[in-house]
Amino acid sequence: MNKKHISATEKIDKTKQYNLKEAVDLVKHLAHTKFDETVDLAMNLGVDPKKSDQMVRGSVVLPHGLGKKIRVLAFAKGEKAIEARNAGADFVGAEDMVEKITGGWLDFDKVVATPDIMGLVGKLGKVLGPRGLMPNPKSGTVTFDIGKAVKDITAGKADYKTEKAGVVHVSIGKVSFESDKLIENAKTVIRAIEKAKPATSKGKYLKKISISSTMGVGVPINVANVATT
Q: What is the pTM of this model?
């Protein structure tokens, strides 16, 4: 742990639960690297991710985007391929794209596909799956409305999925964003996570929330201050 990191840690009151504005301002103030760090929300949920009916997974379009260019690969044919390309997909194809990826090409950030081509895309499971790139109907990346899927991603769609111990990590923008924009993005994510609460989740659902930058330390947020349920 370097001196700047230690210094940043010391500026956070561990006994305090910050409101969202205080937390965002603190994360921006404590960011100490030369690059524009990503800002992330971490939420501890009252779910058991080992149970399929308690898996929290989905996506949300952030009102102010993610602050970075997202390279989209669309698996589609015919008119759907044209639709994807017109919507802004960087790469569009089918068998040719499978061949390129099998050969080691991975210069893209997100993948969408029409349902009729998923049998073809499934062959790439061992490559795309571990990287979190496999299209999935629950995240809206397997759809015949492929134009909308592409536009949502390029506009700044954030995916979320419960990890071990019921934690969800979601990027909400960059340190260079104005505080108000990060706050609005954060609230949008929190509302989406709240709405995604599984019916089988018992007890407190939003247990802990913290915010941090890529190289920064986590700032605890007062859950009651931002929760609507």
A: 0.76
